[in-house]
Amino acid sequence: MSLNILEEVTKTSIELLLKEPFYAHFFSTLNKEVVPKQHSVATMAVGLRHNSFVLIINEHFWSSILTNQKHRYGVVKHEVLHLIFNHLLRNVKENGKNSLLLNIAMDLVVNQYILSDHLPEYSIFLDTFPDLDLEKDQTYVYYYQKLNVLQEDIDNHIGLCDSISAKNLKSIEKQNHGLERHATWDEFNVMSTTERELLEIQLENSIKIARSKTSEKNYSQIPHGVRIRIDEILLNNKPIVDWRRVLRLFSESSVRTRIKNTLRKPSKRYGTNPGLKIVQRHKILVVLDTSGSILLDELKDFFSEVRFMWKRGAEVFIVECDSVIHKKYWYKGVHPNVVYGGGGTSFDLPLKFANEEFHPDGIVYFTDGMAMSPTIVSKAPVLWVISKNGIAIGSEHFTNLKGRKAKIL
Is 327 helix (H, G, I), strand (E, B) or coil? Predict the structure, then answer.
């Protein structure tokens, strides 16, 4: 049953590729999981597995309820758009607001970019609230504010309390209109701020990958409101990983400090000059995959990211490794003239070195991912940074790398 459903989901993604390639390329970066009828996800929703986004598909919902192919296409696109607009993570920031109105507002954002006959009858559109004169291409914040005023009218029996919009809002409150799909978003509420930020990096990387695979002609056909969101990410000129976020994550479990002399700040406690300043340091093990499959340009990309990390204040210790560890050294801002390797790949040796000898706050493993999954469990958090020509996001090898992941474009 699960295999058949995944094959049908693949057919839907192929249809998406033919009609709207950007969404299909983004969809291909998602893991997919089919769950039984009795599962807490009764329909289809985006959730979290192994610190990555996953599309959860209830087998009964897909096979017995969502039987219309147009609706399958539309609901898949609906979930993709929620991710593109980052609604799952932004929902966390709105703690304290009316959750129902927030969910409706976010559906209003994404459903306006889907044909009405591509979604089930109970779906929510801008014209569900005709009295509110809702503008197109607005954010969920705009729609929430409009809905909140309507809700206040209903509660206070004034204004639009007897309008069509009010009646539809009351109906949604009773019937839920498919909003139970958003229940999985609660998973993100219990994550740390830094963990959510790393997921946001992963999300932005997926958007960049999808854009790079989409032709200018096809990209120009994407609705203006969606392109605005995509361009926000594409025009944000940053390293592939925000190392400030990563270092913050690594330091949550272990932060070392050192004392630094400073001429600018006399010590108030001891009356001495120079003064003392406490400086937090992050001890990071960087593993460079130097196997034969790694190209020179990929190594340049790796060292570019290492330099960004080092400039953020990390103490970076580098291990060059293919099937064996060739070289170990502290990084001081200067790239080596020669990098040793050219053989196969073993992920286990650097992880063993970290566990038994180095004991870092965190590990950043630069690789193309073309190797057997590690058998050693790292004691320190790991971020896998996959090279341009490396394994695809969503592939089996990518999924089996335990820890957080990013891909260089």
Answer: strand
